[in-house]
Design brief:
Number of helices: 2
Number of domains: 1
Radius of gyration: 16 Å
Mean pLDDT: 92
Shape: elongated
Helix content: 40-55%
Largest sheet: 3 strands, mixed
Strand content: 15-25%
Structural class: alpha+beta
Order of helices and strands: EEHEH
Distance between the termini: 41 Å
């Protein structure tokens, strides 16, 4: 378990990250947010939308791959 703190829109948020993905999530969060300063709320929204698009693209690729296998 790992904890990371971020300041977004003037408020401090502490997030508890569970294994096995804690290190990867922490790395991505620190690439998106500056842990040493107040981050704008729009950065959080942009990060969410970016990850949502990434998820939808992966879902589409999986569906395409599944079509190649006989039912």
């Amino acid at each position: 378990m790992k904890k990371i703190s971020l300041v977004i829109g003037g408020k401090r948020y502490t997030i508890t990250l569970e294994e096995p993905f804690a290190d990867d999530v922490e790395k991505e969060l620190l690439e998106l947010f500056d842990s040493g300063k107040d981050n704008e709320t729009k950065i959080l929204l942009q990060a969410f939308l970016s990850k949502q698009i990434e998820y939808l693209e992966l879902q589409q690729k999986i569906e395409e791959l599944l079509k190649k296998f006989p039912s």
